[in-house]
Predict the structure.
Amino acid sequence: KMRSTRASRPVVAGPGPGESDPATLEADSISAWFGEHKVLEHVSLTMPARKVTALIGPSGCGKSTFLRILNRMHELIGSASLAGRVLLDGEDIYDRGRRITHARRQIGMVFQKPNPFPAMSIYDNVTAGLKLGGIKAGRENKDWLVEECLTKAGLWKEVRDRLRQPGGALSGGQQQRLCIARSLAVRPRVLLMDEPCSALDPTSTRRIEETIHELSEEVTIVIVTHNMQQAARVSDQCAFFLAEQGTPGAIVEHGTTDAMFNNPQDPRTTDYVNGRF
Ligand code: ADP
Ligand code: MG
């Protein structure tokens, strides 16, 4: 049975005071290549703390590549090479000597297809990220953290009595919320989400959108979405990516979500947000 002594926050060895506050993430002139193929050119974008930034644009314009570069995930998939800088509250995450795990702990990622460890219990799925993040927590602290993260992900009430069941037994929408809970366990400062709802039904989608809205106070959120209504509902600002006729992906226009939808400056933005390509 879970203990729910919320009276005092337990001491979890991990981020210290202030080290888990939402951070501003800044891409400074990012270019990227797969071999000879240049897929991003001079992409600069500031993603402010406590805001939700939506990345929009057609398939193949480099949104996922850009998102992976923001937490050094692309180093796992091999061949992309990179120019430019990524600053987390002003610190370059690619600085020589700065370890990859440093970026990964502070900048979490949620993918299009929910990917919990299917045979692992719901409880263990949430705590799975702790070891990777170098966070040591005793049993009691873990219980507390599991409840906290599942609550933030909007899943606690549904699973509190079945924490020992496998993650794979949950519905698709629940699995995605479990993945959000897992990414929150290390107290990231930024959460990157690559089309987190495109495999989900409308009801699950709305629940994730509510979660995004609630989380935005404590973690900077960057979301890739093909769903323009979703971008309009969840984001504070949008960046429109385009890769025209074999040219590398670049940002055509960015601005507040209101401006992008109601007063776009570039005719290509107007066409895209109105579903014309
Ligand atoms: P988006 O997420 O906007 O659909 P991607 O970032 O997935 O775009 O892809 C951008 C470009 O990079 C595409 O031309 C794609 O074919 C290419 N690309 C993506 N991943 C790889 C990879 N691992 N190896 C080679 N080319 C890739
Ligand atoms: Mg993509």
Summary: The longest strand covers residues 37-47. The mean pLDDT is 91. The two ends are 53 Å apart (CA to CA).
